Fold:
Amino acid sequence: MFRVCSDFDGNTHYFVREPDATIAGVCEIFEDEIFPAQQKAISLRRSPAGPYGQKLNGFTWDVPQVWSQLGYLPLNQDMAVVMMKVLPKGQNHCPRADNQGYNSVKNVPPGFYKAMSDALEKKIASDRNWANRVAVEVRSPNQLDHNVYAQLAGAACTISSCSAKLTNGWDVQFEMRDGKLVVTTATFAIQ
Structure:
């Protein structure tokens, strides 16, 4: 899966999105920057669908010399964009990299991302007042109002806590308590 964009100087940037193996019921995608290069090929770093090291002709990991001289750093390796999606129970195969269910994460291991999703589900199931407060109000085809409970839309962790953006604009804080990840606060993010 590719993403292409242009910068302010009119340079075209190419990104390849590669799914990694499913860990703890979470699909993970890494996005790395690649550069056009005639008579070169790169080996993809991750490829659970086939053998690691699949070849992609006409590209290189190396930044063009002109860009290097200007101090350009590619978005790859340690700075890779990482996106995750929790798989529904019983599903084992990750959707394609262009599936909109993937969310951007920072410093969140797959197992912890799954724990955040589980903690959010548990909070929604155990505290209906809280759940209704952070729900999205929707009109159904028969015009009855009902609530749709938000899901994770992105996450970041530090040493002591994690925060997540929900699909409806709420920010949720998580902390470890007695060895379990729990939802501590929720605030609506005014944009």
